[in-house]
Structure prediction request, 229 residues.
Amino acid sequence: MKTVSDRRKYLILLLLLLGPGVILIYLANADHKFKTLPYFGEREWVAGSPDTIYHRVPDITLIDQDSLPFHMSDMDGKIVVADFFFTTCPSICPIMTMQMTRLQWVLEDPAFKDVRFLSHTVNPKNDTPAVLKAYAKQQGADLNLWTFVTGDEEVIWNHGFEGYLISAQQDDAAPGGFLHSSMFVLLDRERHIRGFYDGTSTAEVDNLVIDIKMLLKEEKMKESEKLKA
Prediction:
């Protein structure tokens, strides 16, 4: 007669043998849900349609560090990390630029070939294309991936408020005379805002790296679904 202890041993052995198979069957039939990044900003109505679309950073024309026209639409199809700064900033900008430079290094792998970096000056009267290019060189920016833009100050400030949903303005009481957000803004390939990250925080920028990986995976899944359709 088997003891209770023997029966228990056989039961445990049986569960160990069957367990992996049961788990595989469950995984094969489960409805997997991949966590996607949120969309930020109010949804906008499509003219003549009951549908709405997610907020997009609008297409505007600025001037890059080479004195060439820059259009936001130039970034279509790319994942973009954007910020607002100025070269003479005595407070948060040096830290933000250091973190953006670090981000550029972290994402050197070919897997991130579609990621671009975009820095808007909030002090265009001082930050001419030549000043921006010298600053970029000093900071070790790869200008094949990282673009610095200037232009009309009102256009840039409004672009920060209305496009990126962050602060960007002149303020005599602020350090250096300008008030702007410390946030890095993550855009997907269609210029939708998918995340905000404190550009002065190493931990936040590390989270940004994780979210870029998630966004790339999301885009890959979308492409796969299109091929199946």
Notes: The first helix runs from residue 4 to 29. Residues 124 and 150 are 5 Å apart (CA to CA). The longest strand covers residues 79-85. The two ends are 61 Å apart (CA to CA).
